[in-house]
Amino acid sequence: MITQEDVELARKAPWLETPRVDDTSPENSALFTIGTVIEANVREASRPLRDVIDEMVRRFAPWGLDSRLAETAYRYVYCWG
Q1: What is each CA distance from 17 to 7, 9, 11, 57, 76, in whole angstroms?
Q2: Considering only CA atoms, which of 76, 57, 59, 58 is closest in space to residue 67?
Q3: What is the count of structural domains for the chain?
Q4: Contact 9/22 with Cβ under 8 angstroms?
Q5: C-alpha to C-alpha distance for 42 and 34, rounded to whole angstroms
Q6: Predicted model pTM
Q7: What is the pLDDT along the chain (81 residues), one digit of tens a residue?
Q8: Within a domain: 19
Q9: All residues at 6 or more sequence positions from 29 whose CB lies less than 8 Å from its CB, including other chains
Q10: Range of the domain at 8
């Protein structure tokens, strides 16, 4: 489950600027949480990534989740998860 705190922390994740797998900051952990939820939804729904991201952005936009952050979170999990 994605929380508002996850979105707020993920926006500050160092990984957004400099990819580093060894960074275990709360911000990168939040980014990983968001990416894990998106990845699970793609797998479970058997839908294209773009559709899942659009749905997640609509759902969590009030908390500040946008396409860039959602796509980055997914890539973070895909690369390092």
Answers
A1: 16, 14, 11, 21, 12
A2: 57
A3: 1
A4: no
A5: 13
A6: 0.75
A7: 888 998 888 888 776 666 555 567 788 888 899 999 999 999 998 889 999 999 999 999 999 999 999 998 998 888 776
A8: no
A9: 9
A10: 4-13+24-80
